[in-house]
Amino acid sequence: MLDFFRKKKHISIDKTAMSGEGNNKPCMEGEITQVPLIDVTSRDLQQTLRGTKARFSENIDYNISILTHRLPSRELLCQRFHIGTLSQTRVVMVYLGDTANPGIVSEIKDRIGAIKTKTVMDSIYIERNIEDSHISPFPQVETSQRPDVTESALLQGRIAVFVDGSPDVILAPTTFFDLMDTPDDAYMRWPVAASFYRAARYIMFLIAASLPALYVALTSYNPEMFPTKLLWLIVASREETPFPIYIEAFIMMGIIEAIRMMMIRIPTQVGATIALLSGITLVIAGIFSNFIGAGVVVIATLSMISSFGIPNFDLRISIRIIQFFTVSMATLFGIFGFAVSAFAIGAHMASLKSFGIPFMAPLAPLEPSGWGHTVFRQSSETMPLDETYKPLPAKGDFDEG
Amino acid sequence: MRDSVKDKLDPRILAITIIVALFEFETFAFAKGVVKFAKQDAWISVLLGGLIGLAGTFLLVKLAERFPKENFFQFNKKIWGQPLAFIIAVASLVYWLGYLVILYKDTSMATEYFFLKRTPTLIPMALFAGVVLWLAVYGLTSIVRFFQIFVWFLILPLIFVSILFLSAVDFKNFFPVMSHGILPVILGAVYYAGALQGLEVILFLMPFISDTKKTVTPALIGTGTVFLITFVHIIGAVGILGVERVQKEVYPGVATMTIPEIPGMMGDRYELFLTLPWITGVFATIALFTYLVSDGFGQIFNIKYKKAIVIAVSLLIITGAFLIPNLAWASMLRENLNFITFSFVYILPIITFIITAIRKKRGTNE
Description:
The complex is a heterodimer of chains A (401) and B (366). With 401 residues, chain A is α+β, with helices and mostly antiparallel strands. Chain A folds into 2 domains: 173 residues, no CATH class; 164 residues, no CATH class. Chain A contains 14 helices and 10 strands. In chain A, a hairpin with a 2-residue loop joins strand 9 and strand 10. The longest helix of chain B is centred in the first third of the chain and has 34 residues. Chain B is globular. Classes of the chains: A alpha+beta (401), B mainly alpha (366). Chains A and B meet through helix 14 and strand 10 of A and helix 5, helix 6, helix 7 and helix 13 of B.
């Protein structure tokens, strides 16, 4: 596939995409022209060992042409918009006519059509305008630069929104399990290994969200719940430290965030080296001078490592912030506070929806038929499809009012 | 957006809902009440009570199945007539309010006992009520989705704990069998069946289920799971602590958990595995019944301000909880409530079912 993209210097595109006409028509229909292929460069995001190395570019025509090449079907429909009174940015909503839920299609169309702005600088501005709740820490749409991920989403009945000038394609609706999904899961040969790594990511998610809070709650309020030997180790490591455990936790979490921001600001090998060196120096100096206990360093580092198991950037950032919330609650109210914060997050996740689809589907509501490519990865010769995004029969309709 | 496509619930979730609705404070304290009546024969009481619970579940499902689009308050009018149905509904609401008050009181005392010894209980309870309120406002489907997320954190530690229990049981504590006759055993069974408070949720969940014909098996699995875990629990409590100590302990479930030691395991105390499921169960039950009470008030008195009702109900419950002076009062109220539960969860629905069957009443599918 990579060779194909490299050899082929021109990709066909749909001219109607530029004219603003031909709404709801097959993407491949219309006068075809050739545009030079923009260099394909692999990026750090969503890197995989196997699968296409092609990525979307900032040119919307190129992006749609990749998609029409991968799915040359008359069911691949494009709905075109010009958003921004000043910029008239081209936005194209793409879906499979025979697969997507018509209710969701019309809802996304309405939400995009209702956007009133002068300019659209990036797909994030479309995302913010169309998602159900922008106060929620959890992203309700997924973004991807990968054509294969987009193709897979379309086949599941989801909708892709392309924005000119942005390589990030919006995929909606989105559930928690879409955000925890990686292309590697689908490309791994052995389903047991794929399911194992998927389960590991969920555990890492839980560790990232809750481990520091649980540690602070137990050490500060209920140390009797630790196994005795572990408690001795913790007590010994904190024998001469001057600060309470929660201050140590906040300091460590702050240092980790600072190092992470530093690595983003200096995205070179030099930056990584500086971050690594300063991090190690701080921690070693902190432990040896008894500023912080070794236990809290282990916990904070483990939760940081675990947070990198979360594939989606927005979800990862949310979990880091949620970590501060859970630690604060644990500091104030111990295990009780930790539990209440978990309930608050759980209540929010249970009530959150993405374009009418519950955020936690297919776990809640329970739809085991969808677990094959969400909670686990089933063994199948073809791509597993589920009912998560499909409309249910009319008799199932119910409004809680 | 009309986003109702996923709001209809799969019949299988009835099992999860029943499990979560039944697990609360009483799950870890019921042993004390059953042992008070049946002594070392408490396990027989639980067996009998469990069978009553399963039979009750079956009848509740069969009753609700006849009215697939209506909840208990709605179809009651067709069976009992408007005035009697109104009285039954108001009595049910008062009973649930009482239940919630006791549940909050139990929670506040347990919070003080286990977690926050020096914090005024009003603060954690207000926090707890705030999150309950938030969830209850979103409605029953959100509450059930919450159950589906958290049921694993409830059930897996409990199964782990149940396995640990069995390693330390001394079977001598169960002898002699039936030395006090059958009556204490029956009283214990009634007490235990009453502790299965929450089964009536079946009567309110049915309108949300997509295929009401497939609800019997999940409902029985739900009650059966709770029955199985509580049976292991009573075996553990009597078999490990003995009759006298079970009656002395404030929380026999937690006391039992402090005893098993398994060489080679990573820990030597497992209270945490009991504590977190306990808080989860209590939270879920409170959220469910806060919703049911608020929704019930809305339906009966035709009030449309749902959020205002939920807030008012929460305030009422917390105030009520702080009017109960101490643990002795709370225990006494709880014991009486378990017998009242028997009337509301078993006797009333059974009579309703009999009348429905005799008069051949059925709901419409519209």
